[in-house]
Q: What sequence folds into this?
């Protein structure tokens, strides 16, 4: 599903974010990506949804070489990928229903289908009674559930969650990880970038450690791997 | 500005049209000399046509020029015509009038050359300057409008940046994002054109009616308001919308770079 072959990324400023990174993630996997700040985690994610292109090497996501996707085809490629951020990125003036429906409206889904899909997704994330609430009326955990709903409503092949629990308390965080696990069981490949030691320890999954722009540890048994802050 | 430009255009052509060189010959020129003078004139560059007018025709013209009193005043000269015959020459290019005149003046048997003098060619030059100046002014205003619309759209885009970034995140195509902003640009441009159209519609008709279609002298007639106003209004509306469309397209383009 995701394959990186000798990927190097050097930004125009001269900063080398990734160097010769190799990684394979299969379809249906649940993977944690951990590592110190500035190790290249963000760049790694940006490559996956083609916000950035690799300087050299190959990045293959959903069977497509992202360097070969033309700029105007990027939106269509992104429909294969759901992304969730630490700060939720919901539209404040739209209701929960509208926020989730938005993801389907912009890809020209028929109205009837939007309604059906949004309602079933709301049920999945456990917010069926909040459909008409506005984001500011929800707790952080609930807002993150809406963001996840928006990311998965069009059934993407890959879900990328960048620090999804970064702003949440431990109890709520557990709920979010359980939801992501549920999404994973429905067949979506899930990638969770996190700093949260407790979560990686208690929900054991394949864990990839990125340090200095390459993978320094990859344990399919899971569990937290400590690193040396540079 | 457009009205002025179009009317000046009309006037210039009107004036240019009436630019003829009037060559009076000496009274005692023989018929053979007339033929040779005509062929000399025809050889001069930029001469479009040469028309010969006999003494009698000249007298007729003089009488006609004085209207009803003409025949009373001048008919008595018919017996012993004091006028010489003349050539009426049309220049192919109004700017060449001066050089043609001076060349004709040097011919033997020519009494006098009259082409309306420097004033006319100054006027033609002046009108041309107004015409060109007007075109530059209109182009300048169009560019100004373009930048103003681009800025307006940029402000709208900035205020909706989160929305755009989310749209891009969930896979909205560039056109899906672009079209609402372009529509907004067209509407702004169109509304911007309505004000000048209203001013034009009432203002020009008023001017036309009050001046009875004449500007300073009968030489400069204004265009009748209909259908001229409608045409110009359509051009203004089209220009406004077009500028809005281009301006908004350029503004959005910067935000959609990957």
A:
């Amino acid at each position: 599903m995701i394959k990186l072959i000798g990927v190097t990324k050097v930004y125009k400023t001269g900063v080398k974010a990734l160097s010769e990174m190799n990684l394979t993630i299969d379809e249906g996997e649940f993977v944690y990506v951990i590592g110190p700040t500035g190790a290249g985690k963000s760049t790694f994610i940006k490559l996956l949804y083609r916000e950035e292109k690799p300087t050299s090497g190959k990045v293959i996501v959903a069977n497509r070489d992202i360097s070969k996707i033309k700029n105007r085809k990027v939106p269509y490629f992104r429909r294969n990928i759901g992304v969730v951020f630490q700060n939720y990125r919901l539209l404040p003036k739209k209701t929960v229903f509208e926020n989730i429906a938005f993801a389907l409206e912009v890809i020209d889904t028929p109205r009837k289908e939007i309604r059906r899909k949004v309602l079933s997704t709301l049920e999945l994330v456990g917010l069926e009674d909040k459909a008409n609430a506005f984001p500011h009326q929800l707790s952080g955990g609930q807002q993150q559930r809406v963001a996840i709903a928006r990311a998965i409503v069009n059934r993407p092949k890959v879900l990328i969650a960048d620090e999804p629990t970064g702003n949440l308390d431990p109890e709520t965080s557990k709920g979010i990880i359980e939801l992501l696990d549920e999404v994973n069981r429905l067949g979506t490949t899930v990638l969770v970038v996190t700093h949260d030691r407790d979560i990686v320890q208690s929900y054991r999954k394949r864990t990839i450690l990125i340090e200095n722009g390459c993978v320094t540890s990859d344990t399919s048994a899971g569990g937290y791997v400590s690193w040396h802050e540079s | 500005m457009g009205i002025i430009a179009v009317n000046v255009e009309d006037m210039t052509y009107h004036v240019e049209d009436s630019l003829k060189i009037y060559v009076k010959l000496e009274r005692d020129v023989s018929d053979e000399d007339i033929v040779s003078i005509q062929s000399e004139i025809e050889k001069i560059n930029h001469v479009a046509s040469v028309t010969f007018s006999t003494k009698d025709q000249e007298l007729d013209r003089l009488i006609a020029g004085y209207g009803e009193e003409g025949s009373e005043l001048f008919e008595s000269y018919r017996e012993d015509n004091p006028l010489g015959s003349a050539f009426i020459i049309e220049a192919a290019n109004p700017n060449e009038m001066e050089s043609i005149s001076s060349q004709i003046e040097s011919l033997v048997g020519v009494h006098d050359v009259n082409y309306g003098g420097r004033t006319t060619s100054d006027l033609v030059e002046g009108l041309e300057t107004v015409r060109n100046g007007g075109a530059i002014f209109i182009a300048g205003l169009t560019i100004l409008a373009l930048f103003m619309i681009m800025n307006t759209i940029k402000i709208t885009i900035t205020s909706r940046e989160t929305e755009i970034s989310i749209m891009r995140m969930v896979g909205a195509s560039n056109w899906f994002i672009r079209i609402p902003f372009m529509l907004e640009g067209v509407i702004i441009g169109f509304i911007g054109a309505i004000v000048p159209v209203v001013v034009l519609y009432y203002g020009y008709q008023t001017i036309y009616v009050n001046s009875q279609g004449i500007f300073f002298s009968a030489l400069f007639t204004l265009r009748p308001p209909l259908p001229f106003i409608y045409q110009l209004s359509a051009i203004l509306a089209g220009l406004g919308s077009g500028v809005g469309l281009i301006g908004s397209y350029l503004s959005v383009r910067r935000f959609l770079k990957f």
